[in-house]
Amino acid sequence: MLKRIVVGTDGSETADRAVDQAIELARLSGAALEVVSAYEPVSGERLRAEAQELPGDVAHAVGPREDVNLRLDAVLGRAKAAGVEARPHPREGDPADAILDVAEETNADLIVVGNKGMTGARRFLLGSVPNKVSHHAPCSVFIVRTT
Questions:
Q1: What is the DSSP string of 71-99?
Q2: Which residues pair with 7 in a beta bridge?
Q3: CA pair distance 22, 87, nearest whole angstrom
């Protein structure tokens, strides 16, 4: 029985397909969904420059996680509409590491990832997210055919 499912998203169309599968699996099994999205660090100089261009009442919202937070909010809304309990996990750094860390922290039963990066010559590189996750996961991994 699945109790906790981890899914990663970068907001792409292919990631959305994996998210849809994860939401459906969570709905069918009654599992909670842990939604992970990673982001690259942004320099303080760039953040200050962007904040100066905005009105004061919204300048505080400018940060390295703003896009990730919007992405996570969208997925949480989709999960809620399907009757699935979901929690966001914005993480700085490598997407595969973020997914693996959340899976370990939440004692996940399943990780859902798309197969993006697993076609052609790239399928032999351990650097792609699905390859790295599948080789280092602390639980079962479901790789959704998204391409």
A1: HHHHHHHHHHHTT--EEEEEEES-HHHHH
A2: 35, 112
A3: 13
Task: Give pLDDT tens digits along the chain (147 positions).
Answer: 899 999 999 988 989 999 999 999 999 999 999 999 998 765 566 655 655 665 555 444 555 567 888 899 999 999 999 999 999 999 988 999 999 999 999 999 999 999 875 444 444 444 588 989 999 999 999 999 987
Lookup: tokens for 64: 């390295």
Cβ 32 vs Cβ 86: under 8 Å: yes
Tell me the C-alpha distance between 111 and 130, whole Å. Answer: 10
Count of domains observed in the chain:
1
- Regarding beta strands 86-92 and 32-39, do their DSSP bridges make them parallel or antiparallel, or are they unpaired? parallel
How open is the CA angle 134-107-68, to the nearest 5 degrees? 70
CATH number at residue 101: 3.40.50.620
Between CA 112 and CA 92 the distance in angstroms is 20
In the sheet with 32-39, reading across from the earlier edge strand, the strands are 86-92, 32-39, 4-8, 110-114, 140-144
What is the span of the domain harbouring residue 60? 4-144
Q: Are 63 and 69 in contact (CB under 8 A)?
A: no
